[in-house]
Write a structure and sequence with these properties.
By secondary structure, the protein is an alpha+beta fold. The chain has helices at about 5-10, 35-45, 50-55, 70-80, 85-90; strands at about 15-20, 25-30, 55-65. It has a single domain (about 10-95), classed as 3-Layer(aba) Sandwich (GIY-YIG endonuclease). The protein has a three-stranded antiparallel beta sheet with strand order 2-1-3, with helices on both faces. The N and C termini lie far apart (about 40 Å). β1 (about 15-20) and β2 (about 25-30) form a beta hairpin.
Length: about 100
């Protein structure tokens, strides 16, 4: 199937794996093309069922990845980590300025 997205638009796509900390201290991991928008969706109760039940959330980790498939793979890797490793990952990786609220 031929993509109907112009080539210049395709090059502008960025993919991110992210983690938010829920009010109960748990981490939720996902992927998105816009971490700020996605965090706002979680906080507006338009995100995942888990974050609707355990919000509000705070964005604590963002990692840019090459493409959609890489984002899915990295999301799965992070989801398999124990809570302590997720906390260490978030603490060791400062949020880029563009993603701070």
């Amino acid at each position: 199937m031929v993509s109907r997205v112009p080539a210049e638009e395709t090059l502008k796509n960025h993919y991110y794996c992210y983690m938010v900390r829920c009010v109960n201290g748990a981490f939720y991991t996902g992927w998105t093309t816009d971490p700020v928008r996605r965090t706002a969706e979680h906080n507006a109760r338009r995100g995942a069922r888990y974050t609707r039940m355990h919000g509000p959330v705070e964005l604590v980790y963002v990692e840019e990845v090459a493409d959609h498939i890489s984002a899915l793979k990295r999301e799965a890797e992070i989801k398999r980590l124990p809570h302590a490793r997720k906390a260490a990952l978030a603490a060791a990786t400062p949020l880029p300025e563009t993603f701070r609220s």
